[in-house]
Amino acid sequence: MCYYRTFLEGRVRNVVIPYLIVSAPAVAVYVFGHKTHPHVDLSQLAAWQLPLYLYATGLHLGPLWFVPIIMIIYAATPLLRLIDRHNAYWLALPLAMIGSLTLFERLEFNEIPI
Question: Which of 16, 29, 32, 35 has a CA that sits 20 to 30 A from residue 100's CA?
């Protein structure tokens, strides 16, 4: 577990902190209302929710959309290593598929037949 701690510390230092710093001006532009998003109605969010939403989705800077996803992978690294070490793909994949079926739904106006 010591290796994972140093791994996370390095990722926070080299990925998360630069992401927060580089993103701050873009988040400020959205928070102060100088820019709106063409596809997402950000006005539905409370003032304190908007920066959290922008940082969590990467919506404020298109080229950095992948950073929040990478952070999720960093957090899941111990679980992914455990699955790999015990060759438990036979259990992990069906559970992940069932979990995704229960967590995610079709869009409200999705008219594409299944």
Answer: 16
